[in-house]
Design brief:
By secondary structure, the protein is of the alpha+beta class. It contains nine helices and 21 strands. Helix 2 packs parallel to helix 3 and helix 7 crosses helix 9.
Length: about 400
Amino acid sequence: DPDTLCGQQGWFGEESLDIEAVHSFAPGANILYVGATTCEGDALNDVLYDTIDSFSPPDIISNSWSENGEFTTPNEQLVNNDQFLQAAAQGISVLFATGDDGDLSQVNGVASGSWPGNSPWVTAVGGTTLALQNSSGDKQEWGWGNYRAFLGGTAKITSGGTVITASDKLGAFSFYGGAGGGVSFYQPQPSYQKGVVPASISTVTYSVVGEPMFYSPPRRVVPDVAMEADPYTGFLVGETYTIAGDPISDGPCTAYSKTTEYCEDSIGGTSLATPSLAGVLALVNQARHQKGLSPVGFFNPALYNLKVGVSGTHAQPLIDVDAPATPTALLRAYPASLKENPRVVTVNSQVFSGCPGRVCEGVDDVFLTTTKAFDNVTGRGTPWVPSLITALGG
């Protein structure tokens, strides 16, 4: 059925996002979109295997999908790992999104990362909030985790986008979304994570009630790296649709004909972060190709050897990502024609009593915390692209 979540139209948004994100970073990249006819059973794995096994395999495979946690069996993971190991041996960079539901403890009863991102043979991509703070282009970047609360009434907005009023009281905050991450149930700690990932997150996970579960020896932890994923600070995606006839759907659109319209809307998630990293690695491979070098291939060994600079600096190929020093939020408002209530959105900042002295993502995501150095929201940090190309481009 083309109209179901796993049908052709269900993948339309993801397909558009993936291609536009890659080309935004790497406009010269050659892109092949490979889709499954369904998301039931092993269909996604089958097309992934076919892509790795093809006569002309790609340099980079970007996957904006994951399981809800890590409930695949060890045998299934062994089969997957064999394919990912083959890809690494062939010089293919395989990237997987870590998901948009935080630590999954409220969903699954236990905090964990998700498969296949937990595989030691893939690069797991987490998410950040990248905020432009003023017209001069000053930026701040934090781990992605949103709570939001709605205001009653409708905000009034000038043509320049300035909020004038928003009526009524603020409602209760609830978890909206945040980068996935955490420890693997089954996969041992890979050699490239030794000495980098703290034991406090590689040997412990938690049940939904906060009971610790201890692992020995240490396990694989995701993500490895992160890029912009917050839908409130994210990425404009353009798509062409059949005119809906609904003012909310048609509001931000421009009619092309009597039946079609072009629409742009903001989007985020680790489904944005992952193809964004694919575009960055395409630039690295382009620089390597110009010097007669092979593609960077399996990214993690090089990634974990890169130098990391502090936030606000650009000398190093990676930039560490930390939580904001104080709780931080933004106000999102919409034109009255869209009939959307204005809302206040926290940015990795929900104050929670279970995190004394820290800024955490809140009660629905308490076991993921953005900290200095490696953490289970942003991994080693986020790339500073010019320095990354210099470091890996040969």
